[in-house]
Amino acid sequence: MLTYKVYHYKFDKLVALMCEHKDTKSACVERKDNLKYFKKYFEEVQAGTIVKEFPYIDRGFMEDYAGYYSRCFHRYVTVDPALVCISLTNKFRRQELGIS
Fold this sequence. Notes:
Structural class: alpha+beta
Mean pLDDT: 77
Shape: globular
Helix content: 25-40%
């Protein structure tokens, strides 16, 4: 069953959400170039909300899993959360997402 949680956008919260699922250290995540891009981009579009969907199963991953990972002895994680950041001008209204 797909569930979601809604958070007010803050860069620190985004980093924390990225780290919590696989118990990754925030210092490791913060060094990534794509996170620097996200920070700049979300400031430019004035992101105001983070929606965390869990479990999120990507179709491409499931195809890869079926072709390779399903034959491995090591158990790989098959689901991850999806983090969606939306701006205040997005078509989704804050009420529809359950935040004030």
